[in-house]
Design brief:
The protein has 2 domains: 131 residues, Aldolase class I (TIM Barrel), CATH 3.20.20; 125 residues, no CATH class. 23% of the residues lie in helices and 26% in strands. Helix 3 links the parallel strand 8 and strand 9.
Length: 271
């Protein structure tokens, strides 16, 4: 595997926001977004380390987290190695769980979304962050995907694979990266044209668009209809345009708040 870095950190975006996660960043990318903040992960000048799957698994195990995010660059450019790594880590974890039966005392409350976990024996939970150009060819029960959709300001929209809206499951996220009102227009057009059961997230480009303007846009075009929002306590599966997800609590909606999940921040505004 061609590895840029492996590290543990508090996740700053998506459904794992605020949770301790191990990140594996792989080398190379097949698109060049105008606002890319990880340019060190691709190109002839990027520095990477060639590692075997076993070596990568050793480092990940040593960090001790069960939440694993595989990112890039574009990690699916190394899909075969990624699958081999996931299978190897699952095999190792299964042996550990078998050898160390869990007990009730192992359970620790962590937050309102993920109620309890076994710090040492929790099965791995893999998130693969892909740039939206490649459809994965594999499935594992403990793997879910974050698919980016690059809007016009990225200068990479023509590379997007529309089939992500078909293949994404209810566990998966489709993340629209937006930096302008035109990008929001693109998002609205795409989610209307390509219904999906995936969760829909909005990721603002740093320094290019204000969070308040995204909220105002959602309200102006009535994108945040109750039927299209998934939150704790809302069990409906009928989402016309996917699910705009807020992981905090649904009660804010009932009190007259408009809620949209922005990667790295959650925005609340009075309706």
């Amino acid at each position: 595997m061609n590895v840029i870095e492996i590290f543990a950190s508090i996740d700053g975006e998506g459904s794992r926001q605020g949770l301790l996660t191990t990140f594996l960043r792989l080398h190379d990318c097949n698109i060049r977004c105008s606002y890319c903040d990880t340019t060190y992960s691709y190109g002839i000048d990027s520095v990477f380390t060639e590692m075997t799957v076993a070596e990568v698994a050793d480092v990940i195990e040593s960090l001790g987290n069960h939440r694993i995010t595989i990112t890039g660059g574009e990690p699916l450019l190394q899909e075969a190695a990624v699958v081999e790594l996931i299978d190897e880590l699952n095999r190792r974890k299964a042996l550990k769980i078998q050898d160390s039966p869990s007990s009730q005392s192992d359970l620790t409350r962590i937050n309102d979304v993920d109620k309890r976990e076994r710090p040492n024996n929790s099965p791995y939970d893999f998130n693969i962050e892909t740039n939206g150009t490649i459809i994965p060819s594999f499935h594992r029960d403990n793997v879910w995907f974050t698919y980016d959709y690059k809007t016009p300001s990225s200068l990479a929209e023509e590379s997007m694979n529309i089939d992500i809206f078909k293949v994404a499951t209810e566990r998966d996220l489709i993340k629209f990266v937006v930096g302008s009102p035109e990008d929001l227009d693109c998002m609205r057009r795409i989610i209307s044209k390509y219904p999906t059961v995936a969760q829909i997230y909005v990721s603002p480009v740093w320094g290019q668009i204000e969070a308040a303007s995204i909220i105002d846009y959602m309200k102006t075009y009535n994108i945040m209809r109750m039927g299209d929002i998934a939150y704790e306590g809302n069990k409906s599966k009928n989402y016309a345009h996917g699910r705009f997800v807020e992981n905090t609590i649904g009660i804010q909606m009932q009190r007259g708040y408009s809620i949209v999940r922005l990667c790295s921040i959650s925005i609340f505004s009075m309706v």
